[in-house]
């Protein structure tokens, strides 16, 4: 591989797509501008997020997992990316394990490659305290009300390592994602911006969901967004423990046993092609 070139793998988790870089067998040191260029769907490869696989020096994890949004921002967590991470390190022979502890900017997650090829991930315990989301509010509430784009909007706020606001809508197909998504993403109540989920409850075990992602816009799927939506539905008494989340790109299985418990996410991870990046 020549100087200024990087080998990459293009992957997706139910349509949420990624450029994955092996940062162990090659030196990956990208500027924000370079990430934006790679993520560009005309001038680059195109992806929602760029993922970097790194060695991790400590005992508690085998790898470090770094996540960059299409706008070049580095973020704390990515659920669909975590499943692709597991598939990548296993298929690339970087591990022979099928239970893989990985360190992220928001802490340890554990990836489990299932016999059927799907990946189950312990996404950690959701966080509701405003200062930990972060979200500016005098006190913690199940639902918050803010004026967004000229209308009063109710939403839940929760962190899955990354910040999420979840609104309940009657029909995701007609939800004002393009208006409320960016307006809430950049609302001053969220000092580090926020991912915005639009949830339609179909039953106590099934929801539809669209997500306007921080730093990437609306995606076909958002793993942490699916976790956040189920948690928001549960704390409002709308959902049971095991929920199928139907996103535009496909379905995820989410399980949450309640306060203080981790959220489990199960779904597919696909490799589409491999290539060489010229920086
Ligand atoms: N846009 C997110 C990161 C990617 C999350 C999403 N792709 C997922 O599958 O969880 C954020 O800024 O926190």
UniProtKB/TrEMBL annotation:
For this protein's source organism, the top of the classification is: Bacteria, Pseudomonadati, Pseudomonadota, Gammaproteobacteria, Thiotrichales
Taxonomic source organism: Thiothrix unzii
Q: Name one GO molecular function term.
A: diaminopimelate epimerase activity
* Protein name as annotated: Diaminopimelate epimerase
InterPro entries the record matches: DAP_epimerase_AS, DAP_epimerase_DapF
Recorded name of the encoding gene: dapF
Which keywords does this chain's UniProt record carry?
A: Amino-acid biosynthesis, Cytoplasm, Isomerase, Lysine biosynthesis
Q: Which family does it belong to?
A: Belongs to the diaminopimelate epimerase family.
Oligomer and partners? Homodimer.
Site residues, Important for dimerization: 273
Q: What cellular-component terms does GO give this entry?
A: cytosol
């Amino acid at each position: 591989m020549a100087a200024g070139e990087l080998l990459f793998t293009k992957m997706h988790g139910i349509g949420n797509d990624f450029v994955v870089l092996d940062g162990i067998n090659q030196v990956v040191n990208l500027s924000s501008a370079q990430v934006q260029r790679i993520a560009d769907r005309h001038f680059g490869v195109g992806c929602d997020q760029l993922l970097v696989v790194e060695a991790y020096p400590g005992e508690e994890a085998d790898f470090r997992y770094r996540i960059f949004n299409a706008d070049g921002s580095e973020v704390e967590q990515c659920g669909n990316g975590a499943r692709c991470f597991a598939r990548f390190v296993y298929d690339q022979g970087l591990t022979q394990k099928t239970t893989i502890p990985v360190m992220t900017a928001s802490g340890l997650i554990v990836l489990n490659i299932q016999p059927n090829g799907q990946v189950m991930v312990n996404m950690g315990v959701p966080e509701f305290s405003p200062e930990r989301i972060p979200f500016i509010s005098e006190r913690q509430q199940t639902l918050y009300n803010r004026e967004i784009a000229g209308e009063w909007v109710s939403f839940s706020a929760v962190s899955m390592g990354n910040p999420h606001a979840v609104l309940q809508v009657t029909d995701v197909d007609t939800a004002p994602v393009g208006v409320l998504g960016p307006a809430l993403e950049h609302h001053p109540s969220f000092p580090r911006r926020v991912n915005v989920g639009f949830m339609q409850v179909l039953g106590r075990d099934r929801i539809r969901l669209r997500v306007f992602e921080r730093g990437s816009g609306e995606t076909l799927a958002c793993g942490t967004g699916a976790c956040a939506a189920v948690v928001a539905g549960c704390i409002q008494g709308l959902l049971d423990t095991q929920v199928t989340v139907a996103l535009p790109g496909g379905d995820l299985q989410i399980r949450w046993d309640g306060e203080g418990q981790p959220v489990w996410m199960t779904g597919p991870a696909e490799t589409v092609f491999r290539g060489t990046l010229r920086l």
